[in-house]
Amino acid sequence: MHIQLDTLTTDRLLKSLAGQPGSFKLFYDTEDCGCNGVLVIQIITEPNATDIVFQQEPFTFLCDRQQESLFDEVMRLEAEENYPSYKLTSDSTLFGSNIRVRDTRQQTVN
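== Core domain-containing protein ==
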């Protein structure tokens, strides 16, 4: 799999990392949604045992191997210009719009 990114999207994802290490995980969150799941992009520190890395440049992208079949081989992630969300598409599918980035990294307390 591969995700194509434009300049705005790259800049926004970089800003989401806030200068800290992290990877982006495509994840269908099915908890408390009463549906097939809501696509979110999680920022994670470490992958789970069932996660697979499918892209490493310009960012590391992962997904759970059980959710891999839900995605296409080539996708485009686009930041919404006037709203803090993203849209994930391919030539044949709209995977989601209004996709949010959720930072799940451990926050350190000073």
